[in-house]
Design goal:
alpha/beta; 12 helices; about 15% strand
Length: about 350
C-alpha cells in the first residue's frame, strides 16, 4: 500500500519539477528564438494565395490556401500554427513543406494566419495586465516580457478564433471556393495541437479528423496553468487570465483531458503525437549555437508536452477509446524538425478519414 500511495506523489512532483524547468528555460536570455514558428525571413509558397475573411470581432483575417493538386474541393485540412504565430505567414509554410505534401495528396491546405498565444480560442477579454491595455510603449526585442504593454493581435480587441474558424472562415471557404464544410481535417503543433482537439470536440459537424503534435492535452494538471502563463508572456506578452478565468467552465472546456468523452462519442479520428525530448540528427546537425538553442529550449518543452500527451492517452484508453492513433518517436524536441516529420507520418491516415 505504501508503494501505491507514493506513485501519485512522485508523478505530481515530477510534473511540478518539469513545469519549473520549462518556466526557467523560457526566461533564459538565448539569442536565437526559432520555436513555435518565429520566422527569420518570409518564404511564401508561390502556389499558395491569400484568402481574406472578415471577423466581426477581430477584423480582417488572412488565411493562406494551397489547392489540392487534382483541383478537388472535397478534401480540406486546417493547419494550425504555434504560440509564436505571426501575422504574415504560417510557420508551417515558412519552416516546412507540409502544405505542398498535403497538396500532393490531393488535400486543400488551409493555413490561418495570426493568433499569437491564442490557443485559437474565444477569449474572455482582450489581453491586458493589471487592467492596462496596449498604450504602445516599449520595444520589440524578441522577449515577450518586454512586450506585455505593446499593441498587437488580441490586445486592442478580443480574440475570437474558435468562432472565426468554425463560422466565418468555414462559410467563406464554402461560398467563395466551393470547399466542403464537413468532414474536414484539422491539426497543429503545441498550442495548435491542443486547439485542433478542441475544435473537433465541439464541432464534429465540421471536423472528422484531428491531429495534435506536442500538444498540451492536460492543461488542468498541477502547474500547467502557470507554465502556460509563462509561455504566453514569452510569446508576445499575453495574459492567460484574459483567455479564461482559472479553473472555470471556459478553462475546463479547453482541456482535452476533460472533454475526451466527446471525441469518443463522435468517433473523431485522432492522431496524437509527442517526441521523446531527445534531439534528432537534424537538431544535432545545426550550427553550434542553433543546436544548443534547440536542445536547451526544446527538450524541456517537449518533455512537458510528452507528459501531457501520455496522460491524455491513458485517459482515452481508460474510456475504451478506439478512435486514436498514438505516435511517440524515439527522437524529437519542441521544434519544426519534429513536427514536419510527424506530419509526414500522419498525412496518409488523415487522407483516409476526410472528404
Amino acid at each position: 500500500m505504501r508503494g501505491v500511495r507514493s506513485r501519485p506523489g512522485r508523478r505530481s512532483g515530477w510534473l511540478r519539477r518539469t513545469v519549473l524547468v520549462v518556466a526557467a528555460t523560457l526566461t533564459l536570455p538565448i539569442a536565437i528564438a526559432g520555436f513555435d514558428g518565429t520566422p527569420a525571413r518570409a518564404a511564401f509558397d508561390p502556389a499558395a494565395f491569400d484568402f481574406w475573411v472578415d471577423s466581426p470581432v477581430m477584423g480582417p483575417i488572412k488565411t493562406r490556401v494551397l489547392r489540392a493538386a487534382d483541383g478537388n474541393t472535397n478534401r480540406v485540412a486546417y493547419v494550425l500554427d504555434g504560440m509564436r504565430a505571426t501575422t504574415d505567414i504560417s510557420g508551417w509554410e515558412h519552416e516546412t513543406n507540409v502544405a505542398e505534401v498535403l497538396a500532393s495528396w490531393n488535400i486543400n491546405a488551409v493555413m490561418p494566419i495570426g493568433g499569437q498565444s491564442s490557443f485559437y480560442a474565444d477569449w474572455n477579454a482582450p489581453s491586458s495586465f493589471f487592467d492596462i491595455g496596449s498604450p504602445g510603449f516599449g520595444s520589440v526585442t524578441g522577449s515577450g516580457a518586454t512586450e506585455t504593454f505593446l499593441g498587437g493581435p488580441g490586445k486592442s480587441y478580443r480574440y475570437d478564433w474558435e468562432t472565426f474558424l468554425t463560422d466565418q472562415l468555414r462559410n467563406a471557404l464554402r461560398d467563395r471556393l466551393g470547399f466542403r464544410a464537413d468532414r474536414n481535417g484539422v491539426f497543429g503543433l503545441s498550442m495548435g495541437g491542443s486547439a485542433a482537439l478542441t475544435l473537433a470536440a465541439y464541432h464534429p459537424d465540421q471536423f472528422s479528423f484531428a491531429g495534435s503534435f506536442s500538444g498540451y492535452l492536460n492543461i488542468s494538471a498541477p502547474g500547467m496553468r502557470e507554465a502556460i502563463r509563462v509561455a504566453m508572456i514569452d510569446a508576445g506578452g499575453y495574459n492567460v487570465d484574459s483567455m479564461a478565468p482559472p479553473w472555470g467552465p471556459a478553462w475546463l472546456r479547453m482541456d482535452p483531458f476533460v472533454f475526451a468523452p466527446r471525441l469518443i462519442a463522435d468517433n473523431v479520428r485522432l492522431w496524437i503525437a509527442a517526441g521523446s525530448g531527445v534531439p534528432g540528427p537534424e537538431d544535432l546537425g545545426l550550427p553550434p549555437l542553433a543546436a544548443a538553442d534547440h536542445i536547451v529550449r526544446g527538450t524541456p518543452l517537449e518533455a512537458l508536452a510528452l507528459a501531457n500527451t501520455r496522460a491524455f492517452q491513458v485517459r482515452m484508453l481508460s474510456l475504451g477509446a478506439q478512435n486514436a492513433v498514438y505516435s511517440f518517436p524515439d527522437v524529437g524536441v519542441h521544434d519544426w524538425f519534429n513536427w514536419q516529420n510527424e506530419a509526414y507520418r500522419m498525412i496518409p491516415d488523415m487522407s483516409a478519414n476526410i472528404g
